[in-house]
Amino acid sequence: MLRAAQRLRFFAKQVQWILLSAEALSNIDMVDVKEPALKKQACDVSFTNGHSNGVLVAPLLALRVKKLAPEAVLPTRGSALAAGYDLSSAYDAIVPARGKALVKTELSVGIPEGTYGRVAPRSGLALKHSIDVGAGVIDGDYRGPLGVILFNHSDVDFPIKAGDRIAQLILERIVTPEVVEVDDLDSTSRGEGGFGSTGVAVAPVVVVEAPSS
């Protein structure tokens, strides 16, 4: 009975940790880190059980940001419900027509545990200037400078001024399960249907012959 009670208390602690982490993830704060290195932080969560008090350690879910140059602009969200943090160029730049350019933000970021950063286009630049973003994945252990690859699909050069918002950083949850080799996979209704197999069905062609005279 004692072991069962201990296992039950341990399970309750794990459930509480998951709930607290999920709640914190939905309300991530941004921290401007001025130390030479991006330090990992933690928060202590106290709980009470039937016998004793304990301390549960969970990762601090904050987007840690370090400026690498005075020209760097901290990421900002355009509204309270905005999904992404706007990224700004630290310097003037030009994205050539039908070409690409690596635009520097002069920022280094520490992505919260359990997430990765996705650099996504800004809708206004895509619609008005045909500007797209490439190679936009930031791993949680990357600590180098954050650069944004911009593609210009228009026929005119696209000028960028220092401080212009060029992309947005979106934090997305990620799972990294163990890779397991198997001999076979479970069957599905789709099976091996590939490109276009679930798209709009092609209407049959109906041939109407002219009446014979």
What are the defining features of this structure?
alpha+beta, 213 residues, Deoxyuridine 5'-Triphosphate Nucleotidohydrolase, Chain A, 33% strand, four-stranded antiparallel sheet, 14 strands
Describe the fold and architecture.
The protein has 213 residues and is α+β, with helices and mostly antiparallel strands. It has a single domain (2-173), classed as Deoxyuridine 5'-Triphosphate Nucleotidohydrolase, Chain A. Helices cover 15% and strands 33% of the residues. The protein contains 2 helices and 14 strands. It has helices at residues 2-25, 123-129, and strands at residues 29-32, 42-48, 53-59, 62-67, 85-88, 93-95, 100-104, 107-110, 115-120, 131-134, 137-138, 147-152, 158-160, 165-173. A 4-stranded antiparallel sheet has the order 5-14-9-11, with no helix packed on it. A 3-stranded mixed sheet has the order 1-4-8, with no helix packed on it. Strands 7-12-10 form a 3-stranded antiparallel sheet. A hairpin with a 4-residue loop joins strand 2 and strand 3 (53-59). The termini are far apart. The relative contact order is 0.15. InterPro entries: dUTPase, dUTPase-like, dUTPase-like_sf, dUTPase_trimeric. Its EC number is 3.6.1.23. Belongs to the dUTPase family.
The level 1 CATH classification is Mainly Beta
Total helices: the number is 2
Spatially, the strands of the biggest sheet line up as 5-14-9-11
Radius of gyration: 25 Å
* Assigned CATH architecture: Distorted Sandwich
Largest sheet: 4 strands, antiparallel
**Helix-residue proportion:** 10-25%
Indicate the low-confidence ranges by residue numbers.
36-58
Structural class: alpha+beta
CATH superfamily: Deoxyuridine triphosphatase (dUTPase)
Cα distance spanning the termini: 96 Å
Quick one: how many beta strands? 14
Looking at the structure, what is the overall shape? flat
- The amount of beta strand, in percent, is 25-35%
* CATH-defined topology: Deoxyuridine 5'-Triphosphate Nucleotidohydrolase, Chain A
Mean pLDDT: 81
Domain count, please report it: 1
Order of helices and strands: HEEEEEEEEEHEEEEE
